[in-house]
Design brief:
It is built from 6 helices and 6 strands, in the order βαααβαββαββα. It is an alpha/beta fold. The protein folds into 2 domains: 133 residues, Rossmann fold; 51 residues, no CATH class. The model has no long low-confidence stretch (mean pLDDT 94). The structure holds magnesium ion.
Length: 190
């Protein structure tokens, strides 16, 4: 079997950053936003939340990395299964402030990875040299699929309006992602 290069996102795919972000946001701005109300990528624009505050809350969520929950149970074992298909890099777009905390969180969660690749907070990932991307950002998913690469959309309330196509498939968890990658490889071998 050919070895794949897999780009695995962290926020919204491994770490449930939005859950902590939401709690901080509700506390700070005296709001009652729920997870399911985050139904678009830039939902905060219509809620009167400033982009700088969005970023500051995000950094604060990572500052308290020890309490940041994983998206799924048995995350370490599920990522281990992805390694059976090839190289698994953690690929993340963020400012440099939170990188140490990200590394600490990954170590604490025992997430094996080949490399951690950091791009700028406003950059998308489609130009990077990977065969398969697992991501929750509509911006990334459309960029990746638009370049003919294989994008797996990690299901979240903020990406539900993304339509599936041949090389852009929705997955409900990392086990589902493994199943999709296995089918992809099988179809290529035929
Ligand atoms: Mg993400």
């Amino acid at each position: 079997m050919r070895s794949l290069r897999i780009a695995l996102d962290i926020d919204g795919v491994l770490a449930d950053t939005m859950r902590t972000w939401l709690k901080l946001c509700n506390d700070r701005f005296d709001m009652n936003l729920t997870y399911d109300q985050i139904d678009r990528w830039n939902f905060w624009r219509d809620r009167g939340i400033d982009e700088k505050d969005v970023e500051a809350l995000f950094d604060d969520a990572w500052e308290d990395w020890k309490t940041l929950p994983p998206t799924e149970n048995n995350l370490s074992r599920k990522v281990e299964l992805l390694h059976e298909f090839g190289n698994v890099d953690i690929v993340t777009a963020r400012n440099s402030m939170t990188i140490t905390n990200v590394t600490n969180w990954l170590d604490n969660q025992k997430i094996r990875r080949n490399r951690i690749v950091v791009i700028g907070p406003d950059q998308t990932k489609g130009h990077l040299d990977y065969d398969v991307f697992i991501d929750d950002s509509p911006l990334n998913l459309l960029d990746i699929a638009g370049r003919g690469k294989f994008a797996l959309c990690y299901d979240q309330p903020w990406n539900r309006d993304i339509s599936q196509r041949e090389n852009l498939l929705r997955v409900r968890g990392l086990s589902d992602a493994c199943a999709r990658i296995r089918s992809l490889l099988n179809s290529r071998d035929e």
